[in-house]
């Protein structure tokens, strides 16, 4: 089983220097490099202290400079907010500077504040995302790119640098809805699976993805399919549950609060249900390291979990993950 970390850059209540957010994350990334994690996946967000990382490519360069073997993932590049040629250049440059260690994850985005302030109509998000992905991949693999689409048009442009990895870095699409999963599967893309769905729903989505891959003439065999899971560990179940509850409240406030009015994302809790409790019961892996390891192995057997992408909800959780769970994973 592969183990990675989905690295957020949260600045809760702005109660300490912002520079410490980045330094702590980079120190954590150095630990990942030494201890056998597969990859760090850097989360991009804008206009919110929920995660103060507007450029995963810039932070990726710093992460690459402080590591030797860890793969550097974008979790994700929010493609509709970039000019696609600039996006192709930045990711290719990161691949060159990292010695060919980039995992490129791309996504559509969800925060209405991002769409509004970048001037991207939400109703165009999917078409812009699809065009951007096609342009980036062609810019990496074609000597000169010509393209005519709904949003972009180019005629014989040479995009440099090309990535170090050939024909291009491995690619994942963030896919939560059935339509997004079906689109990715139909084109043979691997997918990143979200940190908000219940474990059982992740299993159903994985099966749906496998069926759509096969229908399009592709196979699921041999693919890395990271499943993002929020994680809270403690030396007792009660301590871990408290960390999990605080983390669940942070997620609910950040993603589903009325002030955010997200595009295409809703809290899947039943009407009238407690969304924080749903995270505790169905989404967050929490408990002692021994209990959580047992749960991970159960999910491996029941839903095919073979690449766990952890989002640790505290520094202590990351330490316990590194010391107590990573060495014992099969």
Q: In a few lines, what is going on in this structure?
A:
This protein has helices at 18-35, 56-65, 84-97, 112-118, 125-141, 178-186, 199-215, 237-256, 275-283, 289-303, 315-325, and strands at 2-7, 39-42, 71-74, 77-78, 102-107, 145-148, 153-157, 171-174, 190-192, 227-233, 285-287, 307-312.
Description:
This protein is of the alpha/beta class. Helices cover 45% and strands 16% of the residues. It contains eleven helices and twelve strands. The chain has helices spanning 18-35, 56-65, 84-97, 112-118, 125-141, 178-186, 199-215, 237-256, 275-283, 289-303, 315-325, and strands spanning 2-7, 39-42, 71-74, 77-78, 102-107, 145-148, 153-157, 171-174, 190-192, 227-233, 285-287, 307-312. The strands form two sheets. Strands 1, 2, 3, 4, 5, 8, 9, 10, 11 and 12 form a ten-stranded parallel β-sheet that branches. Helix 3 crosses helix 5 (125-141) and helix 10 crosses helix 11 (315-325). The longest helix has 20 residues, at 237-256. It is globular, with a radius of gyration of 19 Å. The mean pLDDT is 94.
């Amino acid at each position: 089983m592969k183990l990675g970390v989905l690295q957020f850059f949260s600045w809760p209540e702005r109660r300490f220097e912002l520079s410490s957010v980045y330094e702590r994350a980079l120190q954590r990334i150095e630990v990942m490099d030494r201890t056998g994690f597969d990859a760090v996946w850097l989360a991009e967000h804008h206009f919110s202290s929920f995660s103060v990382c507007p450029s995963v490519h810039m932070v990726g360069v710093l992460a690459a400079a402080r590591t030797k073997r860890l793969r550097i993932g974008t979790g994700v590049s929010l493609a509709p907010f970039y000019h696609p040629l600039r996006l192709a250049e930045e990711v290719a440059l990161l691949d060159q500077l990292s010695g060919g260690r980039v995992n490129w994850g791309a996504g559509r985005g969800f925060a209405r504040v991002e769409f509004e302030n970048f001037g991207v109509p939400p109703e165009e998000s999917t078409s812009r995302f699809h065009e951007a992905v096609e342009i980036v991949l062609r810019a990496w693999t074609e000597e000169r790119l010509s393209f005519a689409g709904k949003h972009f048009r180019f005629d014989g442009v040479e995009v440099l640098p090309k990535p170090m990895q050939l024909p291009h870095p491995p690619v994942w699409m963030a896919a939560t809805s059935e339509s997004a999963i079906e689109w990715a599967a139909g084109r043979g893309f691997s997918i990143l699976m979200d940190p908000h769905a219940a474990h059982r729903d992740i299993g159903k989505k994985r099966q749906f993805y496998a069926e759509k891959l096969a229908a399009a003439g592709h196979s699921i065999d041999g693919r890395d399919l990271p499943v993002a899971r929020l994680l809270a560990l403690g030396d007792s179940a009660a301590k871990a549950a408290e960390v999990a509850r605080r983390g669940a409240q942070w997620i609910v406030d950040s993603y589903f609060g009325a002030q955010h009015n997200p595009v295409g994302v809703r809290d899947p809790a039943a009407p009238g249900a407690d969304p924080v409790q749903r995270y505790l019961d169905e989404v967050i892996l929490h408990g002692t390291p021994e209990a959580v390891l047992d749960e991970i192995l159960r999910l491996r057997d029941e839903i095919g979990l073979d690449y766990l992408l952890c989002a640790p909800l505290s520094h202590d959780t990351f330490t316990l993950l590194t010391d107590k769970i990573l060495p014992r994973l099969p």
